[in-house]
Amino acid sequence: MKVIETEIPGVLIIEPDVHGDHRGYFMETYHKDVYEKNGIHADFVQDNMSFSAAKGTLRGLHWQNAPMAQAKLVSCTKGCVIDVAVDIRKGSPTYRKWVSVELSAENKRQFFIPRGFAHGFLTLTDNVEFRYKVDNFYSKEHDRGIRYDDPSIHVDWGKLLNGIEPILSKKDQEGPLLEDSDANFKYEGDE
User: Fold this and answer.
1) Catalytic annotation on 62?
2) Catalytic residue selected from 30, 35, 41, 132
3) For the whole model, what pTM was predicted?
């Protein structure tokens, strides 16, 4: 397994070891001891999966407020996405900064997003299956989101969309800006 650090400490790209032959391939998608040795210390308690039918579907930017905050280990098992993590920890040296990675069924990469980050993705193909491992259970009461095009964050969706209008849920169309949200994360130093 290869772990690639991003510009934001704690946000990691994982390239699992894939063993293939004429029959196909095998890979470990998670091994607690191996992931902990590589800096991922989350006790995953729930797995989620989403399906997006059309290219240009944009889901995000989402998180759960404390005390139900979630770290996420995400991957794309069918199709291709651009995945984005945004630091929303007040006081962080990387506050409002974002990083992105292409995740696909072909590259088999994973993206680890710690607590205190908003998360979203844009589908680059039709028929996308996207998987999440999370370290806290879903809580409707703590579920939050902000606009994908918040000008204070400057995610370059325009470049990523390449002229396509994004397909958004009503929730994502009507989300607040980060400055108007009740995101309750404070930076406590890098772990």
Assistant:
1) yes
2) 132
3) 0.94
